[in-house]
Amino acid sequence: MSQTIKENLSFVLMCLLIFAALFAVALLLEKLLIKDRKKLGSTHFISYTAIFSAMAGFLMFIEIPLFFAPSFYEIDLSEIPIMICTFYLGPVAGIVAELLKIIVKLLFKGTTTAFVGDFANFVVGCSFVLPASVIYHMKKGKKSALVGMIVGTAVMTVFGSLFNAVYLLPTFAELYGMPLDAIIAMGSEVNGAINSVSTLVLFAVVPFNLLKGVIVTLLTMLLYKRISPLLHKGDAKLQERSSKK
Fold it and tell me: Minimal CA–CA distance to 108: which of 44, 42, 58, 53?
């Protein structure tokens, strides 16, 4: 029992440290690289971040199974509101929204993966959102948004694959009480070429992240073009009210 508690506390501490590190990196990049940082009041920032986070959290309820991966790998579209949020408000908002969407999902749905899947969704999601946001905000435009999400997809694919192989899969096996061989066997059932952690990552995790990146990129490009004018119109009204005070 004490060993289990120790393992769980270690996992929670790791989660907190990684969030703090990602937040610090996002804040540093935002200050150093983004020249036209949007200056909005804290209430405006918090309100919009909360709205997009709530949307993303509820989108996590809709999970799409994949024929080429084990059942615990399911695509959700929660990164779309997060990407719109980070394009609108900046990298820091994107990281915070990634965390808040996980909290929303856990409050209403709980976890079926001993929190490892939720942690993975957060960290891998940040590896997608952070580079995409920084590239977009360095020179705002449709082209930079597309380039940012392509780079983000590449980073997410490489990082997500390595993170799964080195940390997430072994940690899931340990905390969930399932032998790593049993996880690999679940992969073998859907793809006979999967017979090790490396082949599970190659034939399941890599295409999973690539597919998710492509879907989120296409839908974000379609939606942000229509939503952006409404958001900026709201900014203009807010600035007008502030100038009258």
Answer: 58
